[in-house]
Automatic annotation (TrEMBL):
The keyword Iron applies. SUPFAM superfamilies: Ferritin-like. It comes from Nitrosomonas communis. Residues 10-148 form the Ferritin/DPS domain. CDD domains: Ferritin_like. GO terms for cellular component: cytosol. Pfam families: Ferritin (PF00210). This is Bacterioferritin.
Length: 155
């Protein structure tokens, strides 16, 4: 059995596009936060943008490893618009985190698809997918914890 390189490249390009959209999304979010908790929240959002760029680069490197051409596209941006505020006031951080969690779920879905495609066929792609799943699961967990109220247990 061998890896279907065309399907793998297509998935990796989708991952790269989604991660690049995350860079734009998190950068935008960081600019939209105001208030006395701004500094740590903006720092965290900027860190997520940097991580998304690293993830996009890794996906692109695998695209070229498999003989493919990295996409120049960027995934959907700000599609929910739930964090918009016509008064241009501070964006509720909870809305940003909910959108972030939805974005992470999309990323995880693609990484799991890639893992399924690569299992037993490509150690490099399989290990990449596993490592990214761990990173995305941990990030989603951090977001879910930030969405909880103090003393609230997990769901």
């Amino acid at each position: 059995m061998s890896l279907d390189k065309d399907k793998a490249v297509a998935l990796l390009n989708q991952i790269m596009e989604l991660e690049l959209a995350g860079v734009v999304r998190y950068t935008h979010y960081a600019l939209m936060v105001y208030g006395y908790n701004r500094i740590p929240i903006v720092e965290w959002l900027n860190k997520q943008a940097e991580e998304g760029l690293l993830h996009a680069r890794k996906a692109g490197e695998l695209v070229t490893l498999l003989g493919g051409h990295p996409s120049l596209a960027i995934g959907p941006l700000l599609e929910t618009h739930e964090h918009d505020n016509s008064l241009a006031c501070s964006v509720p951080v909870g809305d940003i985190l909910q959108e972030s969690l939805a974005h992470e779920d999309k990323s995880l879905n693609l990484y799991y698809q890639l893992l399924e495609l690569a299992q037993g066929k490509s150690v490099v792609v399989e290990e990449y997918a596993r490592a990214q799943i761990v990173a995305e699961e941990m990030h989603a967990d951090a977001v879910r914890k930030m969405l909880r109220q103090p003393c609230e247990t997990g769901k």
